[in-house]
Amino acid sequence: MSPSSRLTTVKDHLQPMSTQKSPITCHVLVASVGKPGQHVSVKIEKIDESGAFTTISTSETNDDGRCPNLLPGDYKVEKGIYRVTFETKEFFARLGEKCFYPYVQIVFELEHPEQHYHIPLLISPYSYTTYRGS
């Protein structure tokens, strides 16, 4: 690979990160094959005063498995408890695979609205792992 090709590859990879509008983002990696989870449906919700979750936005991971615009650009992030749902059964069905978890829900508490919150999800048909990313 030529130096200019490497530079283009790096720029393409970094571009989505530099244009992030959402203070909450996610990323799906299919750990069993080491590839991005492309076009995974994602929903983000926030718990309201009654204790019920209210949908804020729905989205889909891009070709790199990332969802840089998970929240609408005009959404004001507040402290609270949020939930991100990944439609894993739908994703694996498109690949012709069965999976054990039909969806993955990650509930987290956002304490510092000025910070960036990144929710990576590593999946395989029979397992998943998550952590707070950067």
**What series of H and E elements makes up the topology?**
HEEEEEEHEEE
Named CATH architecture: Sandwich
- The CATH C-level class name: Mainly Beta
Number of domains in the coordinates? 1
Helix content: 10-25%
Could you explain how this protein is built, in words?
Helices cover 17% and strands 39% of the residues. It is of the alpha+beta class and 134 residues long. The strands form 2 sheets. Strands 1, 2, 5, 8 and 9 form a 5-stranded mixed β-sheet that branches. A 4-stranded antiparallel β-sheet has the order 4-3-6-7. The chain is globular and about 40 Å long. It comes from Circinella minor. Catalyzes the hydrolysis of 5-hydroxyisourate (HIU) to 2-oxo-4-hydroxy-4-carboxy-5-ureidoimidazoline (OHCU).
Topology:
Layout: H1 3-18, E1 24-30, E2 35-36, E3 41-47, E4 53-60, E5 66-67, E6 80-86, H2 88-94, E7 104-110, E8 117-124, E9 127-130
Short description:
This protein has 134 residues and is an alpha+beta fold.
Jot down its keywords.
2 helices; 5-hydroxyisourate hydrolase; alpha+beta; five-stranded mixed beta sheet; four-stranded antiparallel beta sheet; Immunoglobulin-like; 134 residues; 17% helix; globular
